[in-house]
Design brief:
Low-confidence stretches: none
Largest sheet: 5 strands, mixed, barrel
Number of strands: 10
Mean pLDDT: 93
Number of helices: 8
Amino acid sequence: MAPPHGDDGNDVAEERAIKTIVIVIAMQKEAIPLIKKFNLSQDMNPVFPKGVPWIRYHGIYRDLSINLIWPGKDSILGVNSVCTVSASLVTYASIQALKPDLIINAGTSGGFKAKGACIGDVYISSDVAFHDRRIRIPGYDVYGVGARQSFSTPNLLKELNLKVAKLSTGDSLDMSPEDEAYITANGATLKDMEGGAVAYVAYLLSVPAIFIKAVTDIIDGDKPTAEEFRQNLAAVTIALDGAVTQVVDFICGKSMSEL
């Protein structure tokens, strides 16, 4: 998700101080603490097309322009607009409208205890891929998985001592045997519904992207996923938002090459 290396323009961009970031976050409960923390205001003159439910909160925090983008709620069902379609659309629209130096996709995820994940753990994702785009035709199979590396942040990881793991994305909360096989092949510790979509758009438009994920449910545990997710969401959101705040504080005043 980083701009290709070896281009003089990109080298200059990596040395400039980071001025504008976009935080893509799928659920309102995940977003509200960050809106309060950074004292963000809702955009009353939306930069997005008329009629879409997407909401932008924005403000200045320590000279950093923060734009938190929440895809809003489905206009008929009133539920959060989760999953890959909404994530890809709002990421594309946000990049076009706001020209960010960096994208942060923050959210909750499932985790595998076999890979060491525990409820409340917060990770920076090193790699992102899909597990439900199964196209068993040579070439298309690799395209379907869509594996990409996140932007490398060695200094941030060292300073904040965050865990690192691979993330696998799909549009279903449950996990079929086919999904599990692909997640295993992806080497993933984490499973979410947005990361791969954000990664794809960020890659297309050459915008660096990092992924911060907090574990709400243990996929290979003994509790139903939906039940465990609802039970832990509030507490895990506190951990997620604490980590996002630490990351933003670290970013302030730095260039991409200093991350």
